[in-house]
Every structure is written in C-alpha cells, then in structure tokens.
Design brief:
Blueprint lengths: L1 H11 L4 H8 L3 H13 L21 H39 L13 H6 L5 H8 L7
Length: 139
C-alpha cells in the first residue's frame, strides 16, 4: 500500500523523488525502480494520468460554493462587456473605412529613415569584439 502511495504521489507530480525518499526513508534509486516497474506493466490500480487521492480533496461548503458562483457571474459579465467593446470597435472601424478611407486595423511597420540607413557604418564582427574586449569565440 505504501508503494502504491509513493507511485501515485510521484506520478501526480505532487512530490519529487527526493521528497519521497526523505518522507518514506527509501533510497531514490528504489523509488525510481518502483516507478519504472509500474510504467512497464499495465496496472488496474492507476490510470495513465492519476487523480489525486480523494482523502486530499477539500470539501466545499455552501459559503465557498456561493462565492464561486458569484465570481463566475462577475467573470461572465466582464466577458460580455469585452465582447460588446470588440463589436463596437469593429463597427467604428468599418465606419472610418467607409467614410474616410482610413483602415484602423492596418498596422504600419516602423521604417528606418534613409538618412540613418546611409549613415550606418559597416564594421566587422571581429572589430566589434575587439572594441568590447571579447574574442569571436566568446561572442
């Protein structure tokens, strides 16, 4: 039963091999062997993705449930408001496109000016590395 618990805790990701080794007084090698033996044979005790043991689950109270329902309603309201805003932005964008020929959704990329493009010096990587005190291999 302890071996099954160790395997379950490891596969669920709740504890590392080191943590299990310290908790149960087994070597890390022994725990790794348990897990590898478990993975090599099909076992009816565990699923491919184990679910945490029912004992570890917290019971929800009426108050907790009520808070969750209220939070759920608030989040649904926020989503509804966000969807309305998106829809209104799309309508405004269509109006601007039709009336003024301005496409608000079009993004213009930043372009380098011709002056700065012409002023750029062509310097080799070796020269730059020498300036900053690095070798080319270190770069």
């Amino acid at each position: 039963m302890v071996k099954d618990l160790i395997i379950c805790e490891y596969l669920s990701g709740s504890k590392t091999v080191q943590m299990l080794s310290e908790e149960y007084g087994m070597s890390r090698n022994a725990i790794n062997q348990l897990v590898s033996r478990h993975r090599s044979k099909p076992s009816p005790t565990f699923e491919a993705n184990p679910i945490l043991v029912a004992m570890n689950r917290k019971k929800t109270t009426g108050e907790t449930t009520e808070k969750l329902l209220q939070e759920n309603q608030e989040l649904r309201h926020r989503i509804e408001q966000a969807q309305l805003k998106i829809e209104s932005d799309e309508i405004m964008s269509d109006i601007w496109q039709e009336s003024y020929g301005i496409d608000l959704l079009k993004t213009s990329a930043a372009k380098q000016s011709l002056d700065s493009k012409n002023d750029t010096l062509q310097v080799s990587l070796q020269t730059l590395c020498g300036l900053f005190g690095y070798t080319r291999q270190a770069y």
